[in-house]
Amino acid sequence: MKANTASRLRLYPDSVQAERLVSWTHTCRAVRNVALAERVWAYRSARRVTVRAVDQCVELTEARREHEWLRDLPAQCAQRVLRQLDTAYDNFWNPAHPAGFPRFKRKRGRQGVAFPGQAVRIRKVSRRMAQVWLPKLGWVRLRLARPIEGVVRNAAVSQDGLGWHIAFGVHQPEPVEPLVNTGPPVGVDLGIACSVFLSSEESERQRPDIFSPGEKKRLRGLEQRKARQIVYAKRHSRGRYSKRLRRTIAQIATMKARQSRRRADWNHKLTADLANNHGLIAIENLCVSNMARSAKGTIEHPGRQVLQKAGLNRSIYDQGWFEIRRQLGYKAKRSGGTLVVVPAPGTSQTCAECGVRDPDSRRGCGRLFACVHCGHTDHADRNAAINIRDRALSTAGRAGPTVSGHGRS
Ligand SMILES: [Zn+2]
């Protein structure tokens, strides 16, 4: 019984619980880094030993007897760290998986503590609030933004600029009779400037500005203050970060966390709307990693338009193109629809009316598509969205839909 859905909720530990959680996240990081170092060392040694979690769990038990700080972390959490390292290795060895070699965790990166599902209990206290029981911490308050339906298989507590979160991996039983979404088909053209064009709509959906003018001003001010404080630290205290500088950095992190949360919110609303109201969703197979690589080129074949392409890549990454595709994959499945990923070449140059492909139809840099054969004119992205939909409709019957998972494309 594996977790097949996840739900990330705000967690409100009191100050004592928060302090202990922080120290646990550091312990988890230490366990992971020591375990990884041992594995690397064992493999590099003359005997070429592959160390796994089973072996390291035994060592962990011994180490817990010696070290007070290690003993404080619940044993199940430490064991989970080792199992996760196993998974990281398995993914690295799996040629179909994009993961690279497991990395050492940095103190400045994301921190978290993972619990197995058996170790946590949830109880509702009011309509919107609940409590989760965590080993050694007792009941911790959390906001039940949406109900948790199914069996909790694991839980992960993490902290970012906004505060604490808990992510539950939940197993939901498959519906007895499969859902069928009878909504119309739709083609989606994901633009580069945070915009999305649907084949069924007359205008594009543009993601609103993430920050209000006031927030932008505040962020700019904080960045300037940070720069000033760093200069001061270099001059007067040999680069040692002052308390005030740390506070500025924390305030910037809070704003950045807010930014990414709003961005994620917009993405989720978009993909939920697409998945709930359409039986078939068609998107282009943009190969982002290839595009990123092609920008720089190699020594023999230096890339052309490196700067422009780098800008394009940045905005694609920024928009979280992979994230949208991933969400569409599972949300379409959940609501009984299908996601079809069609090959990208030519969707922006082909006329949606007569089907003739001609780069001349996209003269200039504007957003206008004007067919040189039949004279059909349309917004270029809408034209592309219709092409994407039609391609999906013509392939869905024959080859079967390609529902995207992750993996190298
Ligand atoms: Zn035409």
TrEMBL record:
It comes from the Bacteria. The keyword Nuclease applies. One of its GO terms (molecular function) is endonuclease activity. The keyword Isomerase does not apply. Residues 321-388 form the Cas12f1-like TNB domain. Residues 175-294 form the Probable transposase IS891/IS1136/IS1341 domain. In the C-terminal section; belongs to the transposase 35 family. This is RNA-guided endonuclease InsQ/TnpB family protein. It comes from Amycolatopsis samaneae.
